[in-house]
Amino acid sequence: MENSTANLATRPKGGESEKITINLGPVDLGQIDLLVQEGFYSNRTDLIRTAIRNQLALHAQVVQETVSRRALVLGLQHFSREDLEAVRAAHQRLTIQVLGLASIAADVTPELALATIDSVVVLGAFHASAAVKTALAGRIR
Fold first, then answer.
1. Residues pairing with 94 in the sheet
2. 3-state secondary structure of 43
């Protein structure tokens, strides 16, 4: 039997959202629809978002311990062209490690990104121009 697809958007800190797609079997989807019809949730997304938040709350301590242990930036980290030019001028290189959203400004050139970024590890979303993502492809884990 074919799975139905439900879309939902999560809201990381910083106000932006990322759309994800999940596949659910017809029985699960039917139960969700029943709960929506009965007024427990306003729509499918509301139920799915609530379920995800409940699971994240359940595992909050593990997340916090892992963020500390792995030295991840939690939330939003943005790099402007000026930030990366300052890194280059200081003869330094960045290791970007983020749980949330990491973004590189649209005016950052692939050459500047390559000269200043050693590696990128993002659990969540990574926003950068297609050219910068292509240039950093071998450094993104």
1. 117
2. coil
Last residue of a domain, one of 20, 38, 58: 58
Tokens representing 123 are 């659990």
The answer to whether the beta carbons of residues 48 and 6 sit under 8 Å apart is yes
Domain limits for position 46: 4-58
| CA dist., res. 18 & res. 27, Å (int) | 26
78's enclosing H/E stretch is strand 73-79
Residue 45 shares a structural domain with residue 71? no
Q: How many domains does one find in the chain?
A: 2
pTM: 0.72
The sign of the CA dihedral 71, 72, 76, 82 is: positive
| 17 and 30 part of one domain | yes
Chunked into runs of 10 residues, the chain (141 residues) has average pLDDT values of 37 64 95 97 96 97 92 94 97 96 97 98 96 98 91
Measured CA to CA in angstroms, residue 62 lies from 29, 57, 67, 122, 127 at distances of 30, 10, 9, 18, 26
Same domain, 90 and 135: yes
| Pairwise CA distance, residues 57 & 51, whole Å | 10
